[in-house]
C-alpha cells in the first residue's frame, strides 16, 4: 500500500481545478518546420494569431544543438567553433610584466576617478 501521496488515481499531478481548455491546449496553432545543417527537421507550434515578425527565423535544433532555420534548401551553416587551445598557446598570449603593470595602473586610475579620490601619496 502506498501512503503519503495525495493524488487521486487517474488524475494528473499538478492539473489543478482548470481543464485543458482553460490552459490553452485547444487554442488555434500553426506548425512551423525548421531544418538544421544536417537535414534534421524540428516542428515548433505557435499561436495562430501571432504576427509573422514574432515567430523566430532561427532556433537551436534540440536534436543536434545546431542552428535551424525555416528554409529547407538553405539551412543555417554550422557554427564556427574555436579549436582547443593548449596551455602553451595561452602562455604565448600572456602579456609582458610592463604591459600588465600599465593595465593595472590604468584600472586603478579609473577606480579612483569614479570614487573621486586621488592617488595615495
Automatic annotation (TrEMBL):
Residues 1-21, 56-85 are annotated as: Disordered. Gene3D superfamilies: RNA polymerase-binding protein A. Keywords: Transcription, Transcription regulation. It holds the Pfam family RbpA. Signal peptide: none annotated. Binds to RNA polymerase (RNAP), stimulating transcription from principal, but not alternative sigma factor promoters. Forms a complex with the RNAP catalytic core and with free principal sigma factors. HAMAP family: RbpA (MF_01483). Belongs to the RNA polymerase-binding protein RbpA family. This is RNA polymerase-binding protein RbpA. It comes from Agromyces soli.
